[in-house]
Write a structure and sequence with these properties.
This protein has a single domain, classed as Metal-dependent hydrolases (TIM Barrel, Alpha-Beta Barrel). Helix content is 48%, strand content 14%. The protein contains 17 helices and eight strands. Strands 1-2-3-4-5-6-7-8 form an eight-stranded parallel β-sheet. The structure holds adenine and zinc ion.
Length: 330
């Protein structure tokens, strides 16, 4: 059995495997522009974040009904459980669905049908994090937050994703202030393709409690020192970084140096259907390619639970952490 872990950076739309995409397309009477699953997989050769996002948003067209979102989340949770995930904090992109005429109720109710029975069915506890698209105006994000009010009992926090370059966190100051006032936890993608300054802005202007990716902090030693001092969790996604060309190869990934520097790193899968692996696969890949031994892997697993939004259930966090400490790596 793989080491117990929490997944903290996972876009549910990024778990849409080609097989399920074709099944949902057929169920909804939609034609896809690829001949089949193999042809679709052939398209998974990305130049950068934008070239991935173009396909990611296009393939979402197959997600139309509550049942589609339920099936998507249920398939993810089954795979995650098999890879040692005990707790998953799941992102979703409501604006991408609203733009296609799929209401927020359909998305949240559908996801919740799977998340609500996840512990019983898969042994995985869950949280839901609603992301705003940073390449859409702040007013749209604010309207989305407003529309989400009836669902806030099921939404733990807000995030910020999509095309990063040229879309600084500070644009979303007001939205994050409103989210904080509603008692929502705050995270944001920063320093994936954008500069280290975006990480600082996410912390200082948006008040984020974790930084999603945060990879480019390594370019700024003063920022690294701050992140270490303040114990800011980074939700790194090494396989994503390779596929989106943030690093040349996995062997070039700075994860070992970041751990050595004392950064609170976690490893996650981002969009596993597109990037070649779920979070257990990611642990295996970094162990093998970056030479991380059992104690480093234990650190990553421990960090994932320490950084999880489990403040309302510290007993559960303690249980998960105890599992990590007693896990025997072979
Ligand atoms: N949306 C889905 N995956 C993403 C990523 N890696 N970066 C930004 N936005 C995303
Ligand atoms: Zn992401």
């Amino acid at each position: 059995m793989p080491v117990p872990k929490a997944e903290l950076h996972l876009h549910i739309e990024g778990t849409l495997e080609p097989e399920l995409a074709f099944e949902l397309a057929a169920r909804n009477g939609l034609a896809l522009p690829w001949a089949g699953t193999e042809a679709l997989r052939e398209a998974y050769r990305f130049e950068d974040l934008q070239s991935f996002l173009d396909l990611y948003y296009a393939l979402m067209a197959v997600l139309r009904t509550e049942r589609d979102f339920e099936d998507l989340a249920d398939a993810y949770l089954a795979r995650a459980a098999a890879q040692g995930v005990r707790h998953a904090e799941i992102f979703f992109d409501p604006q991408a669905h609203l733009a296609r005429g799929v209401p927020l109720d359909t998305v949240v109710d559908g996801l919740w049908r799977a998340l609500g029975r996840s512990e019983e069915r898969h042994g995985v506890s869950t949280r839901l994090i609603m992301c705003f698209l940073r390449d859409e105006p702040a007013a749209s994000a604010l309207a989305t937050l407003e529309a989400a009010r009836p669902h806030l009992d099921r939404i733990t926090g807000v995030g910020l994703d999509s095309a990063e370059a040229g879309h600084p966190p500070s644009t979303f100051r007001e939205v994050y202030e409103a989210a904080a006032a509603l008692g929502l936890r705050r995270v944001a993608h920063a320093g994936e393709e954008g500069p280290p300054e975006y990480i600082t802005e996410a912390l200082d202007v948006l008040g984020v409690e974790r930084v999603d990716h945060g990879l480019r902090c390594v370019e700024d030693p003063a920022l690294v020192a701050r992140l270490v001092r303040e114990r800011v969790p980074l939700t790194l996604c090494p396989l994503s970084n390779v596929r989106l060309r943030a690093v040349d190869t996995l062997a070039d990934h700075p994860l070992p140096a970041m751990l050595d520097a004392g950064l609170m790193c976690t490893v996650n899968s981002d969009d596993p259907a597109y990037f070649g692996g779920y979070v257990g696969d990611t642990f295996d890949a970094v162990a093998e390619t970056l030479g991380l031994g059992p104690e480093r892997l234990r650190d990553l697993a421990r960090n994932s639970f320490l950084a999880a939004f489990l403040d309302d259930d510290e007993e559960r966090r303690a249980r998960y952490l105890a599992e990590v400490e007693t896990y025997a790596f072979d």
